[in-house]
Structure prediction request, 304 residues.
Amino acid sequence: MGLGAYVAVSAALFGLGIVCILVRRNVLYVLMGIEMILNAANINFVAFNRFGANELDGRMFAIFTIILAAAEAAVALAIVLNVFHLFNSVKPSEADLLRE
Amino acid sequence: MDHTLQQRIFYGALALLVLVGLGAGLAAGGGAGLAFALFAAMTIGGSLMCIWERSVVRSAFCLMATFTGVAGLFILLESDFIAMAQILIYVGGILVLILFGVMLTPPDLTERQLPRVFAGLILVGAGVAWVAVKVAATARWAVPDEMQPTAESNAREIGVGFLRADGYVVPFELAAVVLTVALVGAVYIARRKRADLEPQGGES
Prediction:
């Protein structure tokens, strides 16, 4: 398959991630949407790396993206738990205070 | 319209779309096209199901199909190390973290609203399609449309790339520091405060 097919799949996954963030009223769906968007970016990195000049750069970027996604998920889960303790809700629109 | 009927219509339509996609892949590229269509269908179908499902637990498990499909696409791109990292970290780590979040927060089956879902799909789909058409019409890729020959061992290649003098040593160490700081910070934020741990109602 050519480069265009991979870019098309990546674009579709990116769009679905945006929809997942916008449509559902739950912090966990925002997290899932972010993971979808990061995965879409990773597909692009690896595809352009394999079809372009065969240096390692694109694959390195993909690995760093995966590492940062792991860190992001851990911190985001901690924030979600704290928000739930404070506001007794997981709706993003109801978390509107910076203090306890 | 009751919920069972909605589920039947959605999954029927999804199965039809997947079959059409598999057929198109088979017609376009033979075996390789079929494999690509299978993994692309897993990726996109998984995320569609994730948006569709009412229960957060089912959405999280649908996300597993997405992550596995992306790993399959990486294998088709001959980047087997990244595919294994994808399965280990996303399916084995991040998904489990999300499931922990699901189990620690209350379920709410009334939160999904179908008009919202369809409006979001149509609006964002139109935007992405518009950008895609513009890009396809105007962009001239500076890369050839076939895969470049690759070295034999992918993991060794990436390890050498990390540790070579002109490679990625500094970003590698920075990533390690970022990961450590993020995990320690996450534990610090998520821990129960000392006041929460003392027995309720007693004098402190």
